[in-house]
Design a protein that fits this description.
mainly alpha
Length: 105
């Protein structure tokens, strides 16, 4: 969903603006996707630590279940981060040689 920008009475779509649907395509914005999953992984790790500590202190069954679920979510998010980082390295290694040489200078 690009936003049209009026320039001298004309309307054009800005080239630097990426739409959300373009960013969601496979191989696009992989570092950003990895960062989002890393933030989620840190959040569920905090939740897992809290629920584990609360379970150790109070021994309530729901806290143990929460700790297990949040621990599984850590693994789940870790898999997503690794997937996006692998996609980053694959996309940069498959770039045309001329582009790599031009960016090296």
């Amino acid at each position: 969903m690009g936003t049209p920008v009026a320039i001298d009475g004309g309307i054009r779509i800005t080239d630097g603006f990426r739409t959300v649907s373009d960013m969601l395509d496979n191989g696009e914005c992989e570092p950003m996707k990895a960062a989002v999953h890393a933030v989620l992984m840190a959040t569920v790790a905090l939740c897992a630590a809290y629920n584990t500590a609360a379970w150790i202190k109070r021994r309530q069954r729901h806290l143990a279940i929460n700790a297990i679920v949040y621990s599984a979510a850590i693994w789940w998010e870790r898999c997503h981060v690794e997937h996006h980082l692998r996609s980053c390295s694959r996309s940069s290694s498959t770039a045309p040689v001329a582009d790599k040489l031009m960016n090296a200078a």
